[in-house]
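Lab notes, practical 5.
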Amino acid sequence: MSTQIQNLNAILDAEPLGKIVLAFLNYLTVEAGLSDNTILGYGRDLRDFTAFCLSKGAKQPDKITTAILFDYAKTLARQSKAEASINRSVVAMKMFLRFCRMMGHIKSDLTVFLESPKLWQKLPIVCSKDQVAKLMNAPDEKEPYYYRDYALLELLYATGTRASEIAGLKISGVNLKIGYARCLGKGKKERVIPLNRTAIAAVEQYLEQLRPKLVKPISGDFLFLSRTGNALSRIEVWRIVKKYACRAGLSRQMTTHTLRHCFATHLLSGGADLRSLQEMLGHVDIATTQIYTHVDQERLRAIHKKYHPRG
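Output from the prediction step:
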């Protein structure tokens, strides 16, 4: 359990309503298998909701009224939060209220009074293959962590993994002879992703040249290590990518998640099918994967030209 979650638990544990929120978060962790990042996000949303309820005199779930829910929804709207953040807060509240009803803390279904804002579907930012090549060439061989950073960049682009997924990647989860990586995604669901020759060579070089020098008793089996021997955190992975993105002149466009978008879009433009891409990205719903068909404009033009009677 992360320090952030422990601090959040200490705050919530101070009030009766907060204790029930903690029971709910524990339920999500044990029964639903949600990641620490998701639990932390829901926890923060429900911490704010709990504080609001307490300010209205509702110290127990059965004291939460529709008026309180409406007032809190208005408060969220006035905070100028992004629609996605408001949507997550509403989802967290709905799940918590359903949990309370399931556990007998409340009798009526209050979730019918909560409505999530409609989200605009934003197209992801994608860099060209030349821009990705610039990023891969940004690390300098003279730098002390060159082998690690280069292998990290190549593996991110080769697998389309999220920052948290690659931070949690273990040596036992990477088979360089056969050429695949086994990672743990959202909901602790495991998936296997093929590796290309460039990524395999980069990881082999890192394992031979640098990782043995970084290993400490605390390192365990984690693939990517910091200078102290700890596993790289997702924040450190993000910082490494931003560092080389700035060096390559791509500071605004490139993040760890941009590399994931590039992975998906470039595979589609190369002829990959959506179902295979869905498996490699770890999307539960193929509708999430389909957004990349709208991003690849060249592919759309090629399909139009090929199949339209006047193309």
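Observations recorded by the TA: Residues 36-55 form the longest helix (20 residues). The radius of gyration is 23 Å.
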